[in-house]
Design brief:
Shape: elongated
Radius of gyration: 24 Å
Distance between the termini: 73 Å
Strand order of the largest sheet: 3-2-1-4-5-6-7-8
Helix content: 40-55%
Number of helices: 17
Strand content: 5-15%
Bound molecules: nicotinamide-adenine-dinucleotide
CATH class of the largest domain: Alpha Beta
């Protein structure tokens, strides 16, 4: 039997979750507080750039399996499963800001109470939240809707922007944390269409489910920081960090993912989730020492990259003009939250430099964040016209095989700072570029 599902918070996670759940036959009502978003999504515009999402949304809108509303009460009234896909941004002290989750839990409880709804409701938290949040949500319902039949579930989401539709459709695992047998049965049933190839659905106690999400992100961030830390060492001892990566990742115990040295991790998840688990431990009077080092290394790595650019110009970039290729925090997304590109751009423009940037998908979002602080080029080649240097913070595919001769001709001088090691050292040397990458030797053409 299909479920009636309410998605509360229709952003990257909510819209993908809602659309995928609708696609397997469920009836999905998406709720958001942003009227403009709701209007555009009703018209079939997913707003965010996510591979395959537009077609999926269009199909399910046409079939009437997905609808949109601003009215939370409509979802609480009609949906058995209410999934919170709400933002949990970092607070000033690094803790996860749970304001949206708390507010929606309170509001939902009041609606259940005032409308005397006694049919079971499964409240599923998909937001990334610190351990103890499900218990807090449970307490909110106990206080404000004492007669309601509410079952609380922690169901952290592991999708990755850029491939999130595929990730949701074919998860490597599903984590369900709940004390309720009723909710457990429903959740296993809900996810059955997505795990037909054998991916496990792990039913855990609630704290384990909550910690698993932070542990996964902190571990992946740690792999990145491990390589970034090593990249510094490789530069000094004359090793090539990419060779070292290949060498170690052939070992199946180490595996291949998240071992690329670069300018450090960014995005809407790793930075905030690493901070949040560190804060959560600190609140208990303890330190998560490895994870603290992960965060420290990540911060230093980006500063090191920026410093390298400044040093190349003897600390004075005033009046220099930079081309930037890639603004999103990683390729295949338009998400610029905590993107390294923004910090690099700010560091340069604050010192009097000008920037012309290109990104295949993230220009609109960057314009909202940076306005006319920089200029936005219509193509990667346009960005390089008159540039003193080209900086590459994001490894979009189309940057991998550029027409070097065209780039060189257009720039004031042939100089590249590659934050993602897109080119081999030979390639850069043959093309006649002075080339700085991460964890590898610098290419400095003969004068
Ligand atoms: N983006 C990812 O790749 C990803 C992956 C896994 C988990 N997560 C977690 O999922 C959660 C959501 O992340 P996101 O990237 O989708 O965020 P987002 O900012 O893209 O979406 C959140 C949505 O919630 C809406 N909203 C805010 N307050 C609301 C309220 N009171 N009622 C209804 N809607 C409200 C916003 O308007 C927005 O559309 C976060 O906790 C995040 O850490 C994100």
């Amino acid at each position: 039997m299909p479920f009636n599902i309410g998605i509360i918070g229709t952003g990257y996670v909510g819209l993908v979750t809602g659309t995928c759940l609708a696609d397997v036959g469920n009836s999905v009502l998406c709720v958001d507080v942003d009227a403009q978003k709701i209007e555009r999504m009703r018209g079939g515009d997913p707003i965010i750039f996510e591979k395959g999402l537009d077609r999926l949304l269009e199909r399910n809108l046409k079939e009437g399996r997905i609808t949109f509303t601003l009215d939370l009460a409509e979802a609480v009234r009609t949906c058995t499963i209410l999934m919170f896909c709400l933002p949990t941004p970092p607070g000033k002290d690094g803790s996860a800001d749970l304001a949206a989750v708390v507010s929606v839990a309170n509001h939902t409880a009041r609606i259940l109470h005032e409308e005397q709804i006694t049919e079971p409701r499964i409240v599923v938290n998909k937001s990334t939240v610190p351990v103890g949040t499900a218990a807090m949500i449970e307490a909110i319902f106990a206080e404000h809707a004492p007669n309601a039949d509410v079952h609380i579930v922690s169901n952290p989401e592991f999708l990755s922007e850029g491939v999130s539709v595929d990730d949701f459709m074919k998860p490597e695992r599903v984590i369900v944390g709940t004390k309720s047998e009723y909710a457990k049965k429903a959740m296993v049933d809900l996810y059955q269409p997505f795990v037909r190839s054998g991916a496990p659905i792990y039913c855990f106690d609630v704290p384990s489910a909550e910690v698993t999400k932070y542990a996964a992100n902190a571990f992946l961030a740690t792999k990145i920081s491990f390589m970034n830390d090593l990249s510094k060492y490789c530069e000094i001892v004359g090793a090539d960090v990419d060779n070292v990566r290949r060498g170690i990742s052939a070992d199946s115990r180490i595996a291949t993912g998240f071992l690329y040295a670069g300018v450090g991790y960014g995005g809407s998840c790793f930075p905030k989730d690493v901070k949040a688990i560190i804060h959560s431990a600190k609140a208990l009077g303890m330190s998560l020492e490895v994870i603290e080092a992960t965060e420290r290394v990540n911060h230093k790595q980006l500063q090191r990259f920026i410093q390298r650019i400044l040093d190349r110009f003897d600390g004075d970039v005033a009046g220099k003009h930079f081309a930037v290729w890639g603004l999103s925090f990683k390729p295949n997304t338009d998400d610029i939250r905590d993107a390294p590109s923004l910090e690099i751009i700010r560091a340069l423009t604050q010192r009097g430099a000008t920037v012309s940037a290109f990104d295949p998908e993230a220009i609109a979002n960057t314009q909202k964040a940076l306005g006319d602080m920089i200029t936005y080029a219509p193509s990667m080649y346009d960005a390089t016209v008159g540039a003193d240097a080209l900086i590459i913070p994001t490894e979009w595919n189309e940057f991998r095989k550029p027409m070097f001769s065209r780039v060189k001709e257009q720039m004031k001088q042939p100089l590249i700072f590659d934050g993602r090691n897109l080119y081999t050292l030979d390639e850069a040397a043959e093309a006649g570029f002075e080339y700085y990458s991460v964890g590898r030797a610098s290419v400095i053409p003969d004068a």
